[in-house]
C-alpha cells in the first residue's frame, strides 16, 4: 500500500535570489503511512507551517515532489490542487478559525456542502463527529459561545468532515492550557484512530509528541527522526 | 385630425400631395424646433447626470465590498483551505454585491414609479406640510406638475443600474478569489 503522504527532496525558499532570501526547506524527505500519527517538532520559525502548507497543497515547493495517495500533486493547476485538498486533506490550526457567523454544526457541515454532500447527510455526519469528541450538545452554539477547548474540537470535526485521507495539524493545542490541551488531544486521537487516516501533527509539546506513533524533527531545513 | 401630435410628420406628405407642388408644409414642430431640441438635450443631459449618480452609488458597493473582503481575509483563507475554488469564492462575493445592486434597483424602480404616478398628491402633501406657497401657480401659470411614466425610461434606468452594480462588484469579488490562503491565514 502506498504512503498517504510522501515528500521527496522538497525545497522552499522565500524571496529567492534576493539578499533577504530565506531557505526554509532544504530537501525534505518524509512519508506518513495510512493510519499512522506522526509528530513534527521544531522550534518556532523552523518552517513547520511552511512544510504543512506544502504537504497540504496550499503552497508549491521550489523543487521536489509532493505525493498524496501515490499521486504526484506537485505541478497540478490551482483548481486541481484545490479539489485534491478538498477530497484528501483536513487542516487544523493553532487557532480554531471557525466562521463566527455560523453555528458549530454549520461550520462542520460547510465543507461537506462544498464537496457536494446533501445537507441531511452532511448534518448527520457532522453530529456523529461532534458526538465522538463530546461537543454534540453545543451544535447550535456559535463559536463565540464555546470555550477554547470546544472551539478546537469543533475545528477537528470540520477538518475531518469530508473524510480526508490525511490530517495536517499546526500546533492544534498550542493555544490551550495543559489540562485542556490533554483533553483536546485525546479527542483528536479518538477521531484519528476511529477514522484510520494518516496524521502529521506539528507541536512544541514534547509530551504530546511522545504519545504519537513516530516523532520527527525539522532541523535546519531537513526532517530527521527525533 | 391626429390623435398624437408627435405623429405630425406622418400626414405631411399626404397634405403636400393634396395641396400641389407650390405648397410649403410648416408644422408645429418646425415652429418650435429650438424648444424641442432644448428639451431633447435636457432629457439626454438628465440621463447622463442620473447615470453619474448611479455610478457613485455603485462606488459605495465597491468600497463596502473591499472592506468586507479585507475583514473576511481569514475566513476566505479557511474556505480556500477547505477546498473552495477561486470561482466559488468569486461567486460568493459577486452574489453579495449583485444582490445589493438588485435590491437597490427594485426599491429605486418602485419608489421612482410611485413618485411619477402620484406626483400631484405628493406635491400637495409637501405644499400642505410646508404651509403652502411651495409652488405659486400665478407666477408660472402651471397648475400641475406634468409627470409621464415612460416604460422605456424605466427599462433604461433598470438596465443601467443593474449593469453598473454587477460590473463593479466583479473587481472586489475577483480580489477575494485571488487571495492567497497562506498569506490570509499567516497575518491573522
Automatic annotation (TrEMBL), chain A:
Residue span, ABC transporter domain: 5-226
Cited Pfam families: ABC_tran
Biological process, per Gene Ontology: lipoprotein localization to outer membrane; protein localization to outer membrane
Keyword line: ATP-binding, Cell inner membrane, Cell membrane, Lipoprotein, Membrane, Nucleotide-binding, Transport
Listed GO CC annotations: membrane protein complex; plasma membrane
Gene3D superfamilies: P-loop containing nucleotide triphosphate hydrolases
UniProt GO molecular function: ATP binding; ATP hydrolysis activity; transmembrane transporter activity
The organism's place on the tree of life at top rank: Bacteria
CDD domains: ABC_MJ0796_LolCDE_FtsE
Record-linked PROSITE patterns: ABC_TRANSPORTER_1, ABC_TRANSPORTER_2
Family to which the UniProt record says this protein belongs: Belongs to the ABC transporter superfamily. Macrolide exporter (TC 3.A.1.122) family.
Protein name (record): Lipoprotein releasing system ATP-binding protein LolD
Organism per entry: Rubellimicrobium mesophilum DSM 19309
